[in-house]
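Researcher: Last one for today. Full complex below.
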Amino acid sequence: MSPWLGFEIRVALRFLREGRMQTLLIIVGVAAGVAVIAYISALINGLQSSTLTKTLGAQAHITMRSPDDLVTPAALPEPGSTLLTQTQPRAQRLRSVANWQALVPLLESMPAIAGVSPAVSGAGLALRGEATQAIALTGVELDRYDRVVGLRSKVISGVARLLPGEAIVGRELAADLGVRAGDRLSIQTGTVSDSVRVTALVDLGVRELNRRTVIVPLRSAQNLLGLPGGVTSLDLTVRDVWSAQTLAQDLRRQFPYKIESWQESNAQLVSALNAQSVSTALIRGVVLIVVVLGIASVLVVSVVQKHREIGILRAMGTTRGQILRIFLVQGAVVGALGSLLGVLLAIALIWLFTTFVRGSDGLPLFAIGLPLSTAVQVALIATVCGVLAAIAPARRAAAMDPAQAIRI
Amino acid sequence: MNPAKASHALIELRDVRKTYNPGLPSEAEVLHGLSLRVDRGEFVALIGPSGSGKSTLLNIVGLLERMTSGSYRLQDEEMQGLGDTELTMRRRTRLGFVFQFHHLLPAFTALENVTMPALMSEGRVSARRLAHARELLAAVGLADAMNKRPSELSGGMQQRVAIARALVHEPPLVLADEPTGNLDTASSDEVFVQMRRMHAELGISFVVVTHDPRLAARCDRLVELIDGRIARDEPT
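Model: Here's the assembly. Have a good evening.
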């Protein structure tokens, strides 16, 4: 049995080898395009992933709260009459999510949800000696909360533990109050105050959060904030970060709570990420077009240069299909070799970025890598583009009249 | 000429006309109802002044151009009306070409040029085909130049490679367009001797277009074309 495309591959490779400089230039051109695409993809993925990790590192993907208190109108206006009213919105008091104990197992049974953490949040003061700081007090069950925000991984000092009378505080707050793991501080909310021992200091990734955060056991927060047995929110973490919005919409249809996804509470960030993604896609598209045009132009020149060889081959009995495939193979080879070189170049660029571009703390700005799947995808796209770019020149070569080609 | 084979028509052209640019002001008929028969085993010289239609006739016989009207039978099969792929396949199996300017593939060695028809047909070059190509190159005196590129060979050597390539798949007919046109006398003689030898050994028919009356006189039959018509057709 004849080897598949044996003739076409051999002639195509020899043609490419014959036009060595031309071939080399176009392979380098394709490599540059592929490197730009792969590097930009890796960079933007790394940047977005880092931004998301920092943003979502200290917050739930979805938050369920009890609905806001609304002012109910005293009476509806009579038909045909217009009632001019001015309603003062109600001050929102701390209220518990109704039936939260029953809701937690129900939410946990949903496959899209990876974790549920009940929380009590409110404002308070932290006092130590003469120092006083306004704080955001959060009461949680540590294990559940850890599943939602990964608190244990953010500990920079001490051991994360929340037994009764213990607290975890943000790094900046600890510095402001002059406390270390093992020290005590007082927490005051309205008329209630309590003394807690700091078990760990955490870095939540945002300085303002670190300056205000005090995390205590759920029951302690319920007592301090005057919400016995209640929770102000249920914090949810989902398996696919980007599905949070859809899931929040589903939950809103099922439950009469105020439900907010991370995308809704960070709308500007999501817009910025989307703009980045669109820009990346545009850059990739433009670079691919340049790559396609580059390959096509070189092959068009090659067809003109090789008209006599094409004529000889046709006279000897090469079919139009074989001539077509010779040039398609050339496009594929240039695309594949350029892709391979381009991926290696992208890896080198990524290494340069992670080695030499550092933040003020001397650490890399963010993790950036080229996943195998991305590399393979980019390489495949470039190879396919190589074949597509070769179609027009290949058709031109195949359509060449052998008698005329030989005569010229 | 082998009398046993001569009784069978290899090519048969009847009332062949070829018009370029039909319907345009530049319309020109170059072959005017030409009829010609070449039998198996013949060695025919096709002569005539420039513009007489020799190359057009050779292209039509070589299935590189289509005639405008008439009939062309190659090995008892009508060629008029066949599609491009069918004509290409007939060219591949039944015809061999030797062009004036060698027309070897410059990117391939002499041996690779000669094995090209096999590679084209089968996608690979079998050991048997390779051995046959080597034998042919040795037969035309190029045993030591098999791995040289055309640019490393003299004009005469290139033309001998072209002859070997035209013969490698043992076609019944080889068409040669001015095969010695740009060679010196010694090289011309050498190339012509090789063609005659292959004709004698393999029984392959040759139609040779030439301007050289000395070479034409050494063919078996002389066909002279003037203004698109056969003016003379006689044994030499």
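Residues 1-7 of chain B have pLDDT under 50 and may be disordered. The domain at 42-64+94-235 of chain B is CATH 3.40.50.300 (Rossmann fold).
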